[in-house]
Write a structure and sequence with these properties.
The chain is an alpha+beta fold. The protein contains eight helices and five strands, in the order βααβααββααααβ.
Length: 167
């Protein structure tokens, strides 16, 4: 399963919110096509980033929980989504998350990395057994840096962010 983000202005957001066709195209078409806003795929690292930022369980009081699993569903009919409906974050939520992410460096995030804990809590992706942990750490740091940059840009533009997870 892969996680995706798209950032867009109010006009673009409303077009997507009102059109099931565009919503389906977000899932099933070329992800880089216009007019769907700037795009970021965080690949298989969504569960890892969530776990390292907020810890085990559904700690919904932590605003960073919204990064992966938060936001308002665009539609409650999740028939063609693998992990729930497309969700959106409003500009004020994007700003809040961006401000929190900037305070956590990739090095601080990686300091929370614990293979045994990842296995115990069945954190996706299920690759914690791999012998080359340095590659895993590099991938996590790279992914996290991209997320921070993406949210900073969206916050500076006062954009909405769509988030969704697909196979």
């Amino acid at each position: 399963m892969l996680a995706y983000y798209r950032q867009m202005n109010f006009t673009e957001f409303n077009k997507i919110k009102e059109s099931r066709i565009i919503q389906k195209n977000l899932i099933y078409s070329d992800l880089t096509e216009s007019p769907y806003g700037d795009y970021l795929c965080i690949d298989i690292w969504w569960g890892t980033i969530d776990f390292l930022l907020v810890g085990p369980g559904a700690n919904k009081s932590n605003p960073l929980k919204k990064l992966i699993f938060g936001g308002v569903p665009l539609d409650t009919d999740d028939i063609w989504f693998d992990f729930g409906p497309i969700r959106y974050l409003e500009p004020n939520e994007v700003q809040e998350i961006s401000e929190l992410l900037v305070k956590i460096s990739p090095e601080v995030l990686i300091a929370r990395y614990d293979t045994a804990s990842m296995i115990e809590h069945q954190v996706p992706p299920d690759i914690w057994w791999t012998e080359n942990q340095s590659e895993v750490v590099i991938s996590i740091k790279s992914c996290y840096s991209k997320i921070v940059d993406f949210f900073q840009k969206a916050a500076s533009r006062k954009n909405y962010i769509l988030a969704y997870i697909t196979a």
